[in-house]
Write a structure and sequence with these properties.
heterodimer; A: mainly alpha; two-stranded antiparallel ribbon; 9 helices; 2 strands; globular; disordered C terminus; B: four-stranded mixed β-sheet; two-stranded antiparallel sheet; 6 strands
Amino acid sequence: MRWWCRARWLPAAVALVVVAWVAALLSAEQVVPFPTLVGPRVPVPLPYLICAMGVAGIVYGLDRSRSALESTAVRSIALRDAALVGAVALACTAVGVAGAALGTPVVAGAARVMVAALGAYLVVRVVARPDLAALAPLGLLTCTVVVWDPSTGPGPWLMAAPDDVGAWGLSVALFLAGSFLLVRPPLRWVTPPGLRAGDGADETHHR
Amino acid sequence: MRTRKRWLTSLATWLAPPLLVMVAVLNLEDGLTFATRGYWETASAKASEAIAYIGIMVALSATWEASRLRSSGMLAATARHPFRVVAAALVPTVVVGLAATALSHGMLAALAVGAPGGPSWRILAVNLLALLGILAWGLFLGFVLPPKLSLAVCLASTYFWYLIIPAHWAFPLWLRYLSGGTLGAPSVWEVSDPRALLAATLTALGLFSVGAVAVLARDRRRTLVVAALVLPLTLAGASMIVRPLDAFPMVDREGITCDDEPVDGLTLCLWPEFERDRAEIVPVIVDTHRTFTEFGLDLPTTVSAGRGTPEDALWLPLQPRTKAEETVPQAFVTTLMPAALPESCPPRRSPDLTLDTVHAWLLVTSGLVDVHELRPTLNTETAAHLDRLVELPPSAQGEWYQANRPVLGTCSADPATLDPAGFTPTEQR
């Protein structure tokens, strides 16, 4: 457990999530004018950006020790990883729900961004390049923002109203898909380089 | 690495299409729609705003290349100079960054084509230096941080630098000038403040030196020590330079020339940008000046499009490439209103009604709008005051303006002289 905590950079990663949430709550009213591909600049709530940045520690921790060594561990490392992201997502959702109940709905939107950001990272690192997966959280938010046409009302998905059930459903589905990919047995065609038998791609990293 | 492979494996290649589309859309929606036309300084300053997106891409791509060089251990193994190795790896990044910058400046040049002079080379130079600085920041992160952390940190830090600092209330307004891309949109009587450009240059040099040390030292600890010394020093120095600017990174433009021969008693000083439309502008200036003089306003006989130059001249904030019948009366209205209203006055200590009525009278007297057109847009009280005011003789209207105008710059209630019905002109006293 101690080894896993250190390998996953857990204290720093959790501290970063907490700092991000504090910053997000302090900036709840703040918006950032963001250009889009379909019209004028749109007001993106700053907590959304901060929360998408706040998962960087978790992402780095998960990326850190994906060596062949872990695949031979007796205890399931993947289950612990899944428990970690699940706990973070649950805690964020709880904060979001509490914030919305206290009259700050944008906090719920920020929680949704964090859930989707974690899911996006977990999916991208398996189905695309693991070395670019760290860009997925902020990249997903950016992609959602730049296709938002403000003249048509609330934005798509992550930019939708904080209580939009469909947007929440999509975020949770992405998160569940990512969690599934995290715990499922590795498939050859989607196995990250570090886990391929004898490929030694992570050697440099551990040098 | 072969050129083709270098391009295919560069992040810049894959980010180039969305970046170029983003820059084009940003300029179409913002710069080309709202900025002042016919003035190169504005075109260059607005074009430099694209650095917010180009900088993010350049930094990310540089971090990616530096991470790959770090992972491969290439710099330790090669006999070539580290700068040459890094420069070769950065070719796609630099080419895409320059292409996007050229696109931005090229698009916004449409605002000023045909105007005298050319692009503001100093803004362009600062723009490119800032780009070099952020590229070096990307290299620094790529060499110092673990590969899987560096990209995320780079993306977050550039979002913070370019998007959050200019928008968040917690950061002072002047801090945004350090990025080298938020220089406002100078009007024709303004130029970008050299202090803003200097601060951006200093910041870029600080970032560049940190990146250069990261490439040359190849020792993480030494690089971090240098960064910890250089970055705070340059950022503090740059901040000290721009701190007095607050929200206005512009200074008054100098070098206006005045006509030797007065026109109908008026000495005119116009910027070269107005030469093309001189024949249309001058008669309207003379007519509007005469109108206000006939109303009893004692206006200077030197009229200048430059603010505060020459001294004692009446400043007209004229906009190039607009209809003379619109820009000239609007310039008179602007200059005859107070330069700045108090930022906030206590309740009932603000001359709101006087402000509206004086403004309405200036609009009507300058000939910009007819009183019948204006009335529906005014509130009932202002409209009633205006109706009574225009019934007074011209000299009495001028006296009314001179009695009420000084109140507008103060925190005080509407004066008793506001209602023209209760206003007694000098000749009737």
